[in-house]
Amino acid sequence: MILGEVNQRIRNQNLDTMTTAAVVAYYSQESVARVSYAGHPPILYRRVTDTAWTFAKPPNRERKKGSHPLNIPLAVASNTLYGQLTLPLAAGDQLFVYTDGIMDAPDAKGESFGLARLKEVLDANANGSLCELKSSVLKALHQYAGEKLIHDDITMIALEIC
Question: Is the CATH code 3.60.40.10 the one for domain 2-160?
């Protein structure tokens, strides 16, 4: 599964485009998911035994002076290196992948919904179905940002390991 997004920003009246991606590959014979990030927000996972969701932190983004850039958006630098995170998963474990339009959704004051609020919504609905989980996120976004979410795309994928 690849979840990517093109972010467009206008600077000095020139259109700059930035593409982020989260690549998630599940290997059933090994019972692991391997995740790579290209400037994308971290996915969340919840083990069947947990009551709370956890951020799958991208591999270390710090780099030493003169070394290749790490995990930055696609096509920003041709010498970028992309790390890979391995998540052991078992039957019943869940993953939640989303675009930054969720965390960047602004309220009337222009403050972003944020990662902490997203995690709170997921934690509060951890026992529901995946459909109910996604509906709860959308409902929370609408309550926070108002009825119109036109700032960016809102994309999410929730899945469970069988």
Answer: yes
